[in-house]
Amino acid sequence: MNFGTRLLHNGNEIDPFTGAASIPLYQASTYHQEDVDAPGDYDYARSGNPTRHALEQTIAELEEGYRGFAFASGMAAISTVFFLFSSGDHLVVSEDLYGGTYRVLSDVLPRLGIRASFVDTTDPGQVEKAIRPETRAIYIETPSNPTLKVTDLAGVSRIAERNGLLIIVDNTFLTPYFQKPLRLGADIVIHSATKFIGGHSDVVSGLVAVKGEEVAERLALLQNALGSILGVQDAWLTMRGLKTLKARMETSTASAEKIARRLQELPGVKKVYYTGLPGHPGKDLQESQASGHGAVLSFDLGSGAKVREVLSRVRLPIVAVSLGSVESILSYPAKMSHAAMPTEERQRRGVTDGLLRLSVGLEDADDLFRDLEQAIGSRRLISVGPEWRASIV
Ligand SMILES: *Cc1c(COP(=O)(O)O)cnc(C)c1O
């Protein structure tokens, strides 16, 4: 069965106890034990809950993993995975990294004796050079945020295999609809399901799928021991969102491709970052390891002043942190995701004061582009007909 079908028919969509067509909210913290010597599958909800379990099996199925786990947030998922490591262990990590992951790796884990080297994982030579005797894993985000640099997952996996390292991939930007890291050699795949998987800006949630039984057992112990589980309501919302993943990814990606191309032609736009654009250095690699380019693009307006002007004039996208929702979201990395990074380091990575990131939602692509065009000032709202003005108020 193809992916679009498996989103809806993966064996976890019908409640096994009642036949309900939507997995019910098993809003219970504990379970009656008929026989204390032979407890059932569920004894206490931190250890297991049927609603959460259905979501966990679904993500395992969709990422083609052995077992799945649901956590209270993407960061809870990532932090719990980091607890697989011990004092003295070292990780090699993509330097273009989600800010929250960077914070855990730089401010929290060193206190526990776990250290990380941040390297440009798009260059396998740098990955190889950063490996030490105490290295245990390589952690990758591809495409990276917000400049969308592409790492060769199969290539880095070969390096990991030669050195006996785990490969961990944050697949938030592409989702299993476009990219399946476990197929390409990864051992653990992580999602902030707050983004495309949930898809509606109404839930904070994290998911993990793992390839092997041994890592799955260690992670199951950690999830229960640390208690970083996803709540029942949020598990339900995540499953509800996931059912429409294909439709949302297809529509948003088609719009993102169109908007990226047209933004390139606007005089006020200095540079557009999107892996689907001809000339993007990672385009061919992206097409060899993923089946689409996703719904996130970034563009540089040249200055912070211009960014402020555009953010105050834009009408359709919400101006916010986050991505991956039904509504388009415009983020300002210099003040949001990358605010904590030293200015020089930030600019070296292309995250300039003029850079905006757009997560394209389900609005009509032409409406979105026209709105950006008027906000960037290439076209004044005054020159737009009443019909357009009425349609965006
Ligand atoms: C948002 C995000 C996270 C963190 O997820 P939360 O659900 O906010 O905790 C991790 N990685 C990436 C790529 C993200 O975009």
From TrEMBL:
Its cofactor is pyridoxal 5'-phosphate. One of its GO terms (biological process) is transsulfuration. The keyword Lyase applies. The modification N6-(pyridoxal phosphate)lysine is found at residue 195. One of its GO terms (cellular component) is cytoplasm. It is an enzyme of class 4 (lyase). InterPro entries: Cys/Met-Metab_PyrdxlP-dep_enz, Cys_met_metab_PP, PyrdxlP-dep_Trfase, PyrdxlP-dep_Trfase_major, PyrdxlP-dep_Trfase_small. It holds the Pfam family Cys_Met_Meta_PP. Belongs to the trans-sulfuration enzymes family. This is cysteine-S-conjugate beta-lyase.
